[in-house]
Amino acid sequence: MTKIIVEELNRLGHVTHRHRYHSLPIKVGRAYHNDLILSDAYVCPEHLVIDEADNGWQIEDKSNQNGVKFKRHSEHSHSNQLHSGDDIIIGRTRLRLFSPWHTVPEAHTLSVDNTLSHFISRPIIATTLIITAVFLLILNAQLASTQSLTMIKLVAANLPAFFVVLFWGGLWTFVGRTIIHRASFLPHFIAAVLLLIASLLVATLSSYIAYTLNDRTIATLFEFVFMGIAVVMLVYINLSNSTHITRSARLIISHSIAWSLLLFGLFMQYAAQPEFNPTPEYNAELKPPFAQLVPSKSPDAFLTNSEWIFQVDTDKALRTSPSENLTP
Q1: What number is the average pLDDT over the span 127-151?
Q2: Cβ proximity of 76 and 82 under 8 Å
Q3: CA-CA distance, 213 to 283, in Å (whole number)?
């Protein structure tokens, strides 16, 4: 029957090894005659002995250097006596002692969020999404150019987008490693690739909306709403893989981050516009015939409808003109 369980922990608190012992005492050290052999240069050949005590275990320090440090999690632990869940540090090795009847927390409930992350992390799905993103980037760069681009120029034009995707995935991987001590780069990277694909599709649809309706305002509103939803989904997936916060908290944080970023970008875009633009931009990109849902106007009709721009209020001009220029 198991009397004690000894866990070896790394610096992040993860269990690297778990040992079960059916009898006490237990000798711990670097020498090969010990019951628990540690490959730590700062641990003595015979470092300590773990033996039974009243409702716990007694630690006997046999080292001649470095000693034993205690991290007690039980209110009843004192001196060299430890209870279930307490830690000891010898050299650079951290050990935690448990009784077989130690209470463990309830299991976490599997959520749809983790299922989605696992789905997009499958090799076939991830490879398909990456190839799709590369194809759309190359196609977008080629269509936006007035001349045929070489493969080197196409790759160079799209490298910044992939650097941003890699940075975003690496950033959230670092966050997950820091908060929950688990690194999962692929789900974050593929989620960012999905956002890249969505942004390319939304930009294309937005250009068709602006061309069809001859109104950039509606197209901008379309981009803002759909990109906001896409960024909310991205941040939600990132939070699901990097934190243990509740679903409602993830929703609040993802919406706050996404809409704040988009509103800031919209504000900066508006602030950068001059008060008077002598060379205004028009939706002049060529589109296929099926995209023209609103009939275009002929040059004559445009000039006829724009005559009021060139009309001058004669009376106002006479009132504001110098008197020497007026004829009797």
Answers
A1: 82
A2: no
A3: 10
